[in-house]
Design goal:
The protein has 292 residues and is of the alpha+beta class. Helix content is 27%, strand content 30%. The chain has nine helices and 16 strands.
């Protein structure tokens, strides 16, 4: 039986990822999957006549066999799952991993090295009630792609950082031992697919989209053990797990990207991550062997 799925983006990110979207559609065709690209803005969902509903352009529609969710909307993920529609990634992954405070809270006491992390309000920056010395890093709990991340080196900067934050919920962390360098590990299901080292000598942010450089990275056994401890805590589809480095070059957990970008993986390897992801979905749905 041919499987039918939805690939969902919101409009802004769809414009930036047209080639990636087409890659999904092309690979799905090769695998004899029916995959429809849909903008989230076209979808309405809620409760109608005491039943959960999902509508496209305000019309009822047949349910898909699965959804690849490339937008951040945990409530929609949950609606899908309550309608028994598998969602990649799941509601649980979306809720935890799109909130830096929740992610650290969830992974605490799991034997995973991480920076001291404090859950605060942006208003605390103006009170002087700060639990760590300068310099430190301020991050919006829901920021993506290096946005809403600031280094504060002295008290005079606090007011300016407060003004530039787009949200009131933040985390505070000390500066890692190797600023401007981080590691992204790509994970599919329970399998490590690849890793990319990102660096930026001109900034404490190593994001590729902010001018950083990227190169393929081979994890050693100690590092693989750390990554696998995180994998064991979730039922992932496709994610990126990001790490910083301490002063001795050891991994420090940083965050998990739910709607992970794959540009650096494509630039540094010949891994066909889209084909692998679609094959993983088919296997998870019972149309192939054991999922990764």
């Amino acid at each position: 039986m041919r499987t039918k799925g939805w690939l969902i983006y919101e409009e802004e990110h769809a414009k930036k990822n047209q080639a990636f979207i087409q890659w999904f559609l092309d690979e799905a065709k090769e695998l004899d999957m029916e995959l429809d690209f849909i903008l989230q803005s076209r979808i309405s969902f809620g409760v109608q006549h005491n039943e959960l509903v999902i509508m496209l352009d305000e019309e009822s529609m047949a349910q898909p066999d699965f959804v690849i969710m490339r937008n951040i909307d945990p409530l929609f993920n949950e609606q899908l799952e309550r309608l028994n529609i598998p969602c990649f990634n799941s509601h649980h992954v979306s809720v935890i991993c799109n909130d830096k405070a929740r992610t650290h809270q969830y992974l605490a006491s799991k034997g995973i090295p991480m920076l001291n992390t404090y859950f605060k309000s942006s208003e605390d920056l103006l009170t002087g009630n700060l639990p760590l010395p300068f310099p430190f890093i301020v991050k919006a709990r829901t920021g993506r792609g290096g946005g809403d991340v600031f280094m504060v080196e002295r008290v005079e900067q606090l007011e300016a950082v407060h003004k530039h934050l787009s949200t009131g919920s933040i985390i505070l962390q000390p500066l890692a031992g190797s600023p401007g360098k981080d590691l992204r590990v790509y994970v599919l299901g329970q399998t490590i697919v690849g890793a990319v080292l990102r660096s930026n000598p001109k900034s404490f942010k190593a994001n590729f989209t902010l001018g950083g450089q990227a190169e393929a990275y081979t994890l050693n056994e100690v590092e693989r053990t750390v990554v696998n401890k995180i994998i064991q805590q979730f039922n992932f589809g496709l994610v990126g797990i990001d790490f910083l480095f301490d002063e001795n070059g050891r991994l420090l957990f940083n965050e998990i990207e739910d709607v992970v970008g794959c540009r650096t993986l494509c630039l540094t390897s010949d891994i066909n991550i889209v084909r692998m992801y679609l094959e993983f979905i088919l296997q998870t749905l019972g149309y192939g062997g054991e999922p990764a």
